[in-house]
Amino acid sequence: MKISKIIFVILLVYFIPVNTFANCIEGDCQNGNGTWKYINHKKYDKYVGAFKNNLPDGKGKTIYKDGLREFVGLYKNGNIHGHGTFTAKYKNGNIQVIYEGEVKEGNIHGHGTFTGKYKNGNIEYTYEGDLEKGSFHGHGRYERFDKNGRTSE
User: Fold this and answer.
1) How confident is the model at residue 1 (pLDDT cuts 50, 70, 90)?
2) pLDDT for 7
3) Is the four-CA dihedral 6, 7, 12, 17 of positive or negative sign?
Protein backbone atom coordinates (compact mmCIF):
# COMPACT_ATOMS: atom_id res chain seq x y z
CA MET A 1 0.00 0.00 0.00
CA LYS A 2 1.82 3.09 -1.31
CA ILE A 3 0.21 5.60 1.07
CA SER A 4 1.04 3.60 4.19
CA LYS A 5 4.69 3.41 3.10
CA ILE A 6 4.81 7.18 2.50
CA ILE A 7 3.23 7.84 5.89
CA PHE A 8 5.65 5.42 7.54
CA VAL A 9 8.69 7.16 6.04
CA ILE A 10 7.44 10.64 6.95
CA LEU A 11 6.79 9.64 10.52
CA LEU A 12 9.83 7.42 10.95
CA VAL A 13 12.04 10.36 10.04
CA TYR A 14 10.01 12.60 12.31
CA PHE A 15 9.89 10.57 15.53
CA ILE A 16 13.50 10.43 16.57
CA PRO A 17 14.82 11.66 19.92
CA VAL A 18 14.82 15.43 20.27
CA ASN A 19 17.55 15.69 22.90
CA THR A 20 20.61 16.27 20.70
CA PHE A 21 22.34 19.37 19.30
CA ALA A 22 20.43 21.99 21.31
CA ASN A 23 20.97 24.94 23.64
CA CYS A 24 18.52 26.42 26.10
CA ILE A 25 17.62 29.92 24.89
CA GLU A 26 14.76 30.72 27.25
CA GLY A 27 13.30 29.57 30.55
CA ASP A 28 14.24 26.54 32.62
CA CYS A 29 15.41 23.67 30.40
CA GLN A 30 16.51 21.60 33.39
CA ASN A 31 13.32 21.14 35.42
CA GLY A 32 10.61 23.50 34.24
CA ASN A 33 9.40 25.11 31.02
CA GLY A 34 11.75 26.44 28.40
CA THR A 35 12.88 26.63 24.79
CA TRP A 36 15.63 24.67 23.12
CA LYS A 37 17.17 26.00 19.92
CA TYR A 38 18.76 23.27 17.81
CA ILE A 39 22.27 23.89 16.53
CA ASN A 40 23.28 22.58 13.11
CA HIS A 41 20.44 20.06 13.17
CA LYS A 42 19.27 19.00 9.71
CA LYS A 43 15.55 19.00 10.54
CA TYR A 44 14.62 20.65 13.84
CA ASP A 45 14.53 24.35 14.66
CA LYS A 46 13.30 24.36 18.26
CA TYR A 47 11.46 22.62 21.07
CA VAL A 48 9.20 24.59 23.40
CA GLY A 49 7.74 22.94 26.47
CA ALA A 50 8.30 21.06 29.70
CA PHE A 51 11.66 19.68 30.83
CA LYS A 52 12.69 17.20 33.49
CA ASN A 53 16.32 16.29 34.21
CA ASN A 54 17.50 18.36 31.21
CA LEU A 55 15.24 16.49 28.75
CA PRO A 56 11.87 17.21 27.15
CA ASP A 57 9.34 15.61 29.50
CA GLY A 58 5.66 16.50 29.60
CA LYS A 59 3.75 18.66 27.14
CA GLY A 60 5.75 20.29 24.36
CA LYS A 61 6.08 21.27 20.74
CA THR A 62 8.83 20.54 18.20
CA ILE A 63 9.05 22.83 15.19
CA TYR A 64 10.97 21.95 12.01
CA LYS A 65 13.39 24.29 10.24
CA ASP A 66 11.23 24.34 7.11
CA GLY A 67 8.35 25.80 9.14
CA LEU A 68 5.98 23.31 7.50
CA ARG A 69 6.03 20.51 10.10
CA GLU A 70 5.47 20.34 13.84
CA PHE A 71 4.58 17.93 16.63
CA VAL A 72 2.53 18.98 19.65
CA GLY A 73 2.08 16.45 22.39
CA LEU A 74 3.67 14.52 25.20
CA TYR A 75 7.34 13.71 25.71
CA LYS A 76 9.04 11.35 28.15
CA ASN A 77 12.78 11.20 28.86
CA GLY A 78 13.57 13.18 25.69
CA ASN A 79 11.38 11.12 23.36
CA ILE A 80 7.93 11.68 21.95
CA HIS A 81 5.75 9.42 24.09
CA GLY A 82 1.99 9.53 24.73
CA HIS A 83 -0.72 11.36 22.84
CA GLY A 84 0.09 13.99 20.24
CA THR A 85 -0.55 15.59 16.88
CA PHE A 86 1.87 15.75 13.97
CA THR A 87 1.06 18.26 11.23
CA ALA A 88 2.77 18.75 7.86
CA LYS A 89 1.80 21.58 5.52
CA TYR A 90 2.23 22.35 1.84
CA LYS A 91 4.24 25.46 0.98
CA ASN A 92 0.97 27.25 0.23
CA GLY A 93 0.02 26.83 3.92
CA ASN A 94 -2.69 24.20 3.46
CA ILE A 95 -2.40 21.10 5.62
CA GLN A 96 -0.91 18.05 3.86
CA VAL A 97 -1.15 15.36 6.53
CA ILE A 98 -2.23 15.19 10.16
CA TYR A 99 -1.61 12.33 12.55
CA GLU A 100 -3.36 12.44 15.88
CA GLY A 101 -2.93 9.59 18.29
CA GLU A 102 -0.62 7.55 20.43
CA VAL A 103 3.17 7.43 20.23
CA LYS A 104 5.29 5.02 22.25
CA GLU A 105 8.99 5.73 22.78
CA GLY A 106 9.18 7.73 19.55
CA ASN A 107 7.18 5.28 17.40
CA ILE A 108 3.57 5.57 16.29
CA HIS A 109 1.96 2.81 18.27
CA GLY A 110 -1.61 2.34 19.47
CA HIS A 111 -4.75 4.03 18.21
CA GLY A 112 -4.60 7.01 15.89
CA THR A 113 -6.04 8.90 12.95
CA PHE A 114 -4.28 9.98 9.73
CA THR A 115 -5.85 12.57 7.50
CA GLY A 116 -4.20 13.43 4.19
CA LYS A 117 -5.26 16.41 2.14
CA TYR A 118 -4.87 17.66 -1.41
CA LYS A 119 -3.20 21.03 -2.02
CA ASN A 120 -6.65 22.57 -2.45
CA GLY A 121 -7.52 21.58 1.14
CA ASN A 122 -9.98 18.76 0.32
CA ILE A 123 -9.46 15.46 2.15
CA GLU A 124 -7.59 12.82 0.11
CA TYR A 125 -7.71 9.94 2.60
CA THR A 126 -8.41 9.09 6.22
CA TYR A 127 -7.35 6.18 8.35
CA GLU A 128 -8.55 5.60 11.87
CA GLY A 129 -7.45 2.54 13.73
CA ASP A 130 -4.62 0.59 15.25
CA LEU A 131 -0.99 1.19 14.37
CA GLU A 132 2.24 -0.52 15.27
CA LYS A 133 5.71 0.92 14.62
CA GLY A 134 4.29 3.45 12.16
CA SER A 135 2.26 1.02 10.04
CA PHE A 136 -1.43 0.13 9.89
CA HIS A 137 -1.90 -2.88 12.13
CA GLY A 138 -5.00 -4.61 13.45
CA HIS A 139 -8.44 -3.02 13.18
CA GLY A 140 -8.96 0.18 11.29
CA ARG A 141 -10.90 1.98 8.60
CA TYR A 142 -9.28 3.48 5.51
CA GLU A 143 -11.23 5.77 3.21
CA ARG A 144 -10.05 7.55 0.05
CA PHE A 145 -11.59 10.61 -1.63
CA ASP A 146 -11.22 12.23 -5.05
CA LYS A 147 -10.10 15.86 -5.45
CA ASN A 148 -13.71 17.03 -5.24
CA GLY A 149 -14.29 15.37 -1.86
CA ARG A 150 -16.30 12.37 -3.10
CA THR A 151 -15.52 8.88 -1.85
CA SER A 152 -13.52 7.03 -4.48
CA GLU A 153 -13.26 3.32 -5.09
Assistant:
1) low
2) 55
3) positive
